Amino acid sequence: MTDETKTEKELILEVKDLRTYFYGEDDIVWKILEGINFKLYKGETLGILGPSGVGKSVLALSILKLIRYPGKIEGGEVYFKGTNLFKLDEESFDDLRGREIGLVMQNTRGGMDPLRDMTHTTGQPYKVHAEDEPEKDEIKALVVSQLGKVSLPEPYKTSDKFAHQMSGGENQRVKIAAALMNNPTLLIADEPVSNLDSTVARMIMNLLTEMKEKFNLTMILIAHNLGVIAELSDKVAIMYAGKIIEISDVETMYYNPRHPFTQGLFYASPSIAPRGKLKPIPGEEPDARKYPTGCHFHPRCEYAIEKCSIDQPKLEEIDNNHFVACWRTKDIPKYEGDF
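and the corresponding structure tokens:
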């Protein structure tokens, strides 16, 4: 997508220098997010990819200002349709959550009250944001309709069920139905197919694709699975040690990754690594309590030079809308994979 094309599209979300830290005893600080920047336009899906612990879920919660003690958003700005969310009072922010911005949490049963049926779970976002107190019959009818849209069998019967009476995939579809109850502009889906078997995962992926096309949804999709990100995303952001270190459209990312960590991630994946090129990334993830100076990846990088251990690189555009945070991008061999 060219810059000219982007200017014709509505900018839905812009994140600037977002920083979120967690605090422990004896002045220990975990710098989970350290300066996150990206833009998301109407109808786009941004896939966020990276190993566990790099801050993907914290990013989702930070955007929605759902970070609680011992975590704290230490700085940055998040603009939603031109409004700085962090300057809104809590009441105004609450009005956006669940109405303009939907969230599907990682755990298939997370956030579900075991004592409440699916009518309550699915209909609560509508009830909370309705101008007038809706009648029970109105909520029931809307819930049954919504459950049908996410392909749950016998939606009327399903509306009376509880979480423990349903499979993981069914619970996940209910959560998606609830997140879309108010036709939000932005949907944040955190690992929507994790811990699901392959058949159910495929159904959820098809559902997300259908919902995106049907409602022209703008989405942030968080996942570990390279195939899920490739199939559902328009562009991809690679996270490492609290930072986005590479971002581009999905085709560019999978055929021409330029950051050493991104290449290492692909070479370490049995599903996409070139034949005979499968290899692990040396070393271990850095501790968020004390990141290395300079580039956070440099202790594990075979291309690192002295500058990498001293100065921290910023995301810079190396090609059309392809941004990389690396001092040695021009010197790194081309990726040999063929996704």
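(Above: one complete record from the training split.) The chain is about 30% helix and 25% strand.
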